[in-house]
Every structure is written in structure tokens, then in C-alpha cells.
Automatic annotation (TrEMBL):
Keyword field contains DNA repair: no
Keyword Flavoprotein attributed: yes
Domain named Pyridine nucleotide-disulphide oxidoreductase dimerisation: residues: 344-451
Disulfide bonds: 40-45
Binding site for NAD(+): 179-186, 269
Superkingdom to which the source organism belongs: Bacteria
Additional record remark: The active site is a redox-active disulfide bond.
Annotated active site: 441
Similarity comment: family membership: Belongs to the class-I pyridine nucleotide-disulfide oxidoreductase family.
UniProt keyword terms in alphabetical order: Cytoplasm, Disulfide bond, FAD, Flavoprotein, NAD, Nucleotide-binding, Oxidoreductase, Redox-active center
Protein name per the record: Dihydrolipoyl dehydrogenase
Length: 463
């Protein structure tokens, strides 16, 4: 009998799961109450990376003289920025809609799903009608939404989340960013280039990154012009005429600061979207971080799965998609062959940060013997030709078996370079497999190659 599987939410978790399920022969019922593509495509990854490209171009204009180019006056037009973003998003949304409709075994419903029991979902359709469907399995992929801090004054006009910032045509003169995680840092870096004076208030910078990398990133942010305060917590936001004032207190010392800006972006994390899921009645366990799932992303109720941002794992689009594929393969009786613990983390600050696998701190904590090798972008020909000599690649490998354990990159195109490391770690490769691979010249990948050679004291361009 053909299985019928409901997927609630058509973000990168849900729509990818739906397509994989359809490829494997299931009847898929895909339910989405906003736009296909979810947060990632409409309010996350793609809009920010479209802005990132504008920020890169602005940065190039600012540096034109360095390359012997005389640039005239230039400034970012916020309306044009919005239009470009909306065009890119619109094109991709249409593409995904077409993809979904090309599968005859995917029934798509634009509406809100309410789970009635483990085999029944009622859908409040956008046209005002209701539809009830009966299914064998349910995959919850309802994603996440911005979470506000408990800072006083977050309800004031001008205190915004990433959702509102991405809808704004205006480029604020001064933007205060609260939060040193990926989202906060990306917006800080992007808006500084787009023309805002950014003030960053962060209790930590990239808490999951290797400490050496986050330590090296801080001066880069400052050099970019971002007024950066670390080890600090925003306490209260108040109105100061038509501006906003943030009072912040250092964590370790008894000192406070006040900063004034036009908008305050709260980037302090995201929480799960659980409305309509009826979790309490179903007996599905959850907390404010998301739904509890086992190693196979199954909830406490057999046959109901939770993937992507809505479960208590990491919040990344590619992780949501990988979980979606995994779950569908499992439901359809296959044995998915993928290491779900290894995934690249990418940060689109103006000098990019990417990492995969263990950090040095984690290896020390676990008592795993390792060797570390670093290569500076300053010694890489391609990086210097690009004018991007700032950066470092650090490779961590097992002392005995030489298996690649962690790769940490701060530098131009780090987010593309990281995949050689991800490939090595996911496949349990040792450093010899990288060392015997001829890397093209002149490329940034040579920095990766040299860092690996350095583990055996064979690097050519390290004195
Ligand atoms: P979502 O993308 O949130 O999709 C869930 C969908 O379910 C939504 O469309 C929602 O409307 C729908 N839904 C919810 N409840 C119901 C219901 N009851 N019935 C029907 N539909 C429902 N990740 C990266 O990997 N790279 C990046 O560069 C990156 N940049 C980001 C930048 C920003 C500003 C933000 C906010 C996030 C970023 N992320 C990035 C994170 C990424 O967007 C998420 O990890 C990803 O979208 C999670 O996918 P998902 O499918 O789990 O959920």
C-alpha cells in the first residue's frame, strides 16, 4: 500500500522532505500557511545573502583607490536594495512552486495545519474552507520565529527583529545590533557597508566557533567600522527624542554604557513555531527550544517526526533539508547513509567565517589527542591578488590516525572553502587524502592544502 505522508511547513526542511518522499513513491500532502521556501527563502538565508552581495559591492567601491580606480560618488538606495531582494526571492519561490507541482504525488495546500491525532490533520485553507486529511505519518517542519529578549523596552517603536529589518527600505543612520550570533553579526557587517553606523552589543561573538577564530574576527569587525562592545548585555531600551537609547551592562565588570541609535535590531535567537500542532494533547514533548526528537528525528509519538528549526537541534537550512531527506528515506523503508553530526557552519560577515567538526576547545575537553596546523591567507597568491590577504585556515587532525577532526576558516570565500573539510570529516578521511590531491594554482583552496601539509611539516609557503 502506498504510504501517505503529511509534511507541515514548506521551508527547506519541509519542501525538500516532500520532494524526497515523492521521489520514493509516497503520496505527499504538503501544507504551508505562508510562502514556500519558508524563513530561509523569504526572511532568512536568501534575502540576507542578496544584501550581502550589495554590501560586498559597496565595500569594493570604498576600496576602489586601493586598486587604482577612481570611483565617483556612490550610495546605497534602500528601495532598490529591497526590489533586488524581492526579485531574487520571487524568482526562487516560483521555481520551488514549479518544482513541487511537477510531482504528481505531491498535493499542496495553502493553509494552516492543525493536528487532530496521529493520523488526522485538519487544514484551515486560505480560501476560508477547511479540509481534513488522513495520513500514515506526519513530518512537522514548522520552523522558527524571532525571539525577543527580556530587555526592558523591546516593545518600543523602532526596536525590530530580522523580519522587520528585511522589509525596511530605509538604511538607518545608526543601527544598534543586540546579539553576537550568526544573524546579529551578519546584519552588523552588512549594514555597516550599506551605509549605517552600526553599534554591536554582544555578550559573546560566535559562541560555537573555535575561540581563536572568534577572537580574530573581533578586530576585523572593528576595522570595518563597527562600534563593537563584547561581554556586555543590553538592559533597557528607552526613547531619546526620535532616537532609541540602549543601556548595557558589562557581564564581568561593574560598568554600564549608553548608546543611541535610530533602530535597535534584536538578534537574540529564534524559538519554535508550535501553534496548531496540538502537542500537549498528542503527548509530544517540547520546551521553549523546540520539540524533543530521537536520533532519527522521531517525536515521542511513533510515526510523527519533527525536522529543522522546530526541533531542539541546530537552526540551519541545510541541516533542515538533510533531516527532511533522512526522515523520508527512513519512513519509506530505506537506511539513510549520512552522518547527521557533520555539517558546515557558515557566517556571512564581510570577512567570512566557516567551520566544520570539532573546535580545539572541544578536542581538549574530550581529551582527544590532536595536531593543529594553520595557514595565513597573507601567504596565498590568490588571496593577495583579490586584495583579501586577511584570514586564516586552521586544520585539526588526530595525532595518531591523522583523521581530519575540525576545519576552521576566517577569510575570503571561507563559506565555499569549508566543503573540502566537510567532505574529509564526513568520510572519515585522513590528511593523506588531501595531501595527495593536487590543488590548482592560484586558488584559495591552496591555503587549505598548505594548512594540511603543515600538519606533517611539509608546507611549502610557511617559513
Ligand atoms: P522554516 O524555513 O521556518 O519553514 C517553516 C514553514 O512552516 C514556514 O514557511 C511557516 O510559515 C510554515 N508553518 C508554520 N506553522 C505552520 C502550520 N501550522 N501549517 C502550515 N504551515 C506552517 N540558515 C542557513 O543555513 N544559512 C543562512 O545563511 C541562514 N541565514 C539566515 C538569516 C536569517 C536572517 C534568519 C532568520 C535565518 C537564517 N538561516 C540561515 C536559518 C534558516 O532560515 C533556517 O534554519 C531554516 O529556514 C529552517 O528551515 P525549516 O524548514 O525548519 O523552517
Amino acid at each position: 500500500m502506498t504510504k501517505t505522508i503529511a509534511v507541515i511547513g514548506a521551508g527547506p526542511g519541509g519542501y525538500v522532505a516532500a520532494i524526497r518522499g515523492a521521489q520514493l513513491g509516497a503520496n505527499i500532502i504538503l501544507i504551508e500557511n505562508r510562502e514556500v521556501g519558508g524563513t530561509c527563502l523569504n526572511r532568512g538565508c536568501i534575502p540576507t545573502k542578496t544584501y550581502f552581495r550589495n554590501a560586498e559591492i559597496m565595500s569594493n567601491f570604498k576600496r576602489a583607490e586601493e586598486f587604482g580606480i577612481t570611483a565617483g560618488e556612490f550610495k546605497m538606495d534602500g528601495k532598490a536594495l529591497q526590489e533586488r531582494k524581492n526579485n531574487v526571492v520571487g524568482t526562487l519561490v516560483k521555481g520551488i512552486e514549479q518544482l513541487i507541482s511537477s510531482y504528481k504525488n505531491i498535493e499542496f495546500y495553502n493553509g494552516t495545519a492543525n493536528i487532530k491525532d496521529k493520523n488526522t490533520i485538519s487544514i484551515d485553507l486560505k480560501d476560508g474552507t477547511e479540509k481534513t486529511v488522513t495520513v500514515d505519518n506526519i513530518v512537522i517542519a514548522t520552523g522558527s520565529k524571532p525571539q525577543m529578549t527580556e530587555t526592558k523596552g523591546v516593545d518600543l517603536d523602532g526596536v525590530i527583529t530580522s523580519d522587520e529589518l528585511l522589509e525596511m527600505e530605509e538604511i538607518p543612520e545608526t543601527l544598534i545590533v543586540v546579539g553576537g550570533g550568526v544573524i546579529g553579526l551578519e546584519f552588523a557587517s552588512i549594514y555597516q557597508e550599506l551605509g549605517s553606523q552600526v553599534i554591536l552589543l554582544a555578550s559573546r561573538i560566535l559562541k560555537d566557533a573555535d575561540k581563536e577564530i572568534s577572537r580574530r574576527l573581533t578586530p576585523i569587525l572593528k576595522k570595518q567600522g563597527i562600534e563593537t562592545y563584547i561581554d556586555i548585555r543590553a538592559k533597557e531600551i528607552t526613547k531619546e527624542g526620535n532616537k532609541l537609547k540602549v543601556l548595557a551592562k558589562y557581564k564581568e565588570k561593574d560598568e554600564e554604557i549608553e548608546v543611541i541609535g535610530d533602530k535597535v535590531l534584536i538578534a537574540s535567537g529564534r524559538g519554535p513555531v508550535l501553534e496548531g500542532l496540538n502537542l500537549d494533547e498528542l503527548g509530544i514533548k517540547y520546551d521553549d527550544k523546540g520539540i524533543f526528537v530521537n536520533q532519527e528525528f522521531e517525536t515521542h509519538i511513533e510515526g510523527i517526526y519533527a525536522i529543522g528549526d522546530v526541533n531542539r537541534g541546530v537552526q540551519l537550512a541545510h541541516v533542515a533539508s538533510a533531516q527532511g531527506v533522512y526522515v523520508m528515506e527512513k519512513i519509506m523503508g530505506h537506511t539513510p547513509d549520512i552522518n547527521m553530526d557533520i555539517y558546515p557552519n557558515c557566517v556571512f560577515t564581510m570577512t567570512e567565517v566557516a567551520h566544520v567538526g570539532y573546535t580545539e576547545e572541544e578536542l581538549k575537553e574530550k581529551g582527544i589527542p590532536y595536531k593543529a596546523s594553520k595557514f595565513m591567507f597573507a601567504a596565498n597568491g590568490k588571496a593577495l591578488s583579490l586584495g583579501e590577504g586577511e584570514g586564516i585556515i586552521k586544520i585539526l587532525a588526530g595525532e595518531e590516525d591523522k583523521k581530519v577532526l575540525g576545519v576552521h576558516i576566517l577569510g575570503s570565500h571561507a563559506n565555499d572553502l569549508i566543503h573540502e573539510g566537510a567532505l574529509a570529516i564526513s568520510n572519515d578521511l585522513d590528511i593523506n587524502s588531501i595531501m595527495r590531491t593536487i590543488h590548482a594554482h592560484p586558488t584559495l583552496s591552496e591555503a587549505f592544502f598548505e594548512a594540511t601539509l603543515g600538519l606533517e611539516n611539509q608546507a611549502i609557503h610557511i617559513a
